User: Which sequence fits this backbone?
């Protein structure tokens, strides 16, 4: 999770380092006071944007825990996502940036920690979730 300033536009980006699946929202000062709730909603948004069930995801993932981001690849992933955003494409009338999430998850070819080569984050996320659900059954 990282905050990105694009001029007067403040955004919060949350990304799954293993697949590069992400969620983007407009950030307000009050969001920091309720960051645990904001994080939960962003995870639901990212999972849903990838075409997956957030209930199934949370059943595997468990509780949300905030830790420091470790590793060059995880931090580099978020920086890459932040650099793809353009201030004039941010819709300030919407809290969730659905257009940006759709682009980053479905049309932005990228690399990630858990997969070799390039691919679409939504496809990698769905594949990983399906594999974990199969292992659990």
Assistant:
């Amino acid at each position: 999770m990282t905050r990105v300033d694009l001029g007067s536009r403040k955004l919060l980006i949350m990304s799954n380092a293993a697949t590069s699946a992400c969620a983007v929202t407009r950030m307000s000062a009050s969001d920091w006071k309720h960051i645990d709730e904001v994080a939960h909603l962003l995870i639901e948004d990212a999972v849903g944007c990838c075409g997956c069930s957030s209930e199934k995801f949370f059943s595997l993932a468990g509780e949300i825990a905030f830790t420091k981001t470790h590793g060059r690849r995880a931090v580099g992933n978020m920086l890459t996502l932040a650099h793809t955003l353009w201030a004039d494409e941010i819709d300030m009338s919407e809290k969730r940036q659905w257009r940006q999430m759709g682009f980053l998850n479905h049309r932005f070819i990228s690399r990630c920690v858990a997969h070799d080569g390039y691919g679409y984050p939504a496809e990698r996320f769905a594949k990983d979730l399906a594999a974990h659900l199969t292992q659990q059954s």
Observations:
- The CA atoms of residues 10 and 29 lie 9 Å apart.
- The radius of gyration is 14 Å.
- The helical segments are 35-49, 54-61, 72-84, 98-106, 121-136.
